Amino acid sequence: MPDARDARLPFAESVLRAPKGSRWRDWQIDPDATRPKVSLDALAPDGKPFSGGDKAADKEAVERLAGEIDALQNVFHPDGRYKLLVVLQGTDTSGKDGTVRGVFGRTSPLGVRTVGWKAPTEPERAHDFLWRIHQAMPGNGEIVVFNRSHYEDVLVPVVNGWIDKAQTQQRYAHINDFERLLAETGTVILKFMLHIGFDEQRQRLQDRIDDPEKHWKFSLGDLDVRKQWPAYQKAYEDLLGATSTPWAPWSVVPANSKTHRNLMIATIVRDTLQRLELRFPPDDPALKSLRVD
Question: pTM above 0.85?
């Protein structure tokens, strides 16, 4: 069997690879390394590598990028050669909902779909852990954004000791093979780990408690999960190193700043769509002389 890294993709892997010398490079987990050692402590959650230094200007840039993504999606949809899967993964309050609104809020709902993943139902538990995920994949010309994802299945069960190390490694392999299948059949995969600090999460949870309009976002269980912060950080480091592949690399997004979070993700999504060299389908020759009465 050929090595998975030699897989022939319908798009160049350079589409997904952070260019040398780019602001993105230092925040992408090396897709060419075998199980790179990842330290989230070495990646500052309050970093702003994509910021121009002025918050108002950054917000204007996000709006402009959202418009550009909308224009590119208008070609991506009829082009129909690709699918785009955007994975947003992060701890509670890391900003997954805000990213969807800020980056994809201008796109047409006809071609963009968001899936918010929760604990599996009993019918879903009766199948393998990727069964429900596969059913939600984008079709040709479609963009799908995952708010949480299949990576919950190598986070929650790991931290709570529901699966052992051998089972965890097996799931990493299953995920890599699954994403390789998607990539080889035209799915462009962008995976973002929204990285916030412990103190920033405390403030955001407190904001949800203090604001009645945000109570629906808060659960007492969030405080129990917060007590497991070190274990979750370790689980994230392990999965980032094990599942950042040439066909589906991970990017860590410093997300203490909501504006910067959106700016970085919007820039990468815009740049990725541009690299696909999208085009409209060929004209129908019958339209050349057609006149509407």
Answer: yes
